[in-house]
Write a structure and sequence with these properties.
Distance between the termini: 46 Å
Number of helices: 3
Mean pLDDT: 80
Order of helices and strands: HEHEHEEEEE
Radius of gyration: 17 Å
Low-confidence stretches: 1-5, 86-90
Oligomer: single chain
Structural class: alpha/beta
Shape: globular
């Protein structure tokens, strides 16, 4: 089935769903950090895969607190390239990244409060009008509420 190709979009859709379910593909919106020295390269690569699939960059990353702690630890060891708000360089970095920013996109780090992801896993999301915890919402709101990682 993996070598079969078709011009039928329904066939391709269901083939990809089956392959993803069987773990035979690398889903565009999920990833797993294996080497935290290159976490930013891994995230950038997945964001580009996301854009190729969806036509837009993700703006939210969900992960466990322990995953973010590992990212912060890696940044403390090698702050080169970090640009902190109110800081000219990463020399004063003491941990607590809250986003991944490039010249083309920004991904806000949010917690996986439903514990659907394991340590080291992450999920990328695009939400046109994200609602973050603490923002005022009306009673009828049925959208997703994101919980930003504290910096």
């Amino acid at each position: 089935m993996e070598n079969e190709s078709s011009d039928d979009p329904q066939f391709e859709y269901f083939k990809n769903l089956i392959l993803e379910h069987l773990g035979k593909t690398d889903p565009y919106n999920k990833g797993k950090f294996t080497d935290y020295e290159s976490w930013d390269d891994d995230l950038f690569y997945k964001a580009e895969q996301f854009k190729k699939k969806k036509g837009i960059f993700p703006n939210i990353m969900l992960a466990q607190k322990s995953t973010y702690d590992k990212i912060d630890d890696a940044c403390k060891k090698n702050p080169e390239g970090l640009h902190c708000v109110g800081d000219d360089n990463g020399e004063d970095f003491d941990g607590g990244l809250s986003a991944f920013v490039t010249k083309d996109f920004k991904i806000t780090f949010c917690l996986d409060v439903e514990n659907k992801l394991t340590e080291d896993e992450f999920k990328l999301i695009f939400d046109e009008k994200p609602t973050f915890d603490g923002e005022k919402i009306n009673e009828e709101y049925e959208g997703e509420i994101y919980y930003p990682k504290a910096a």
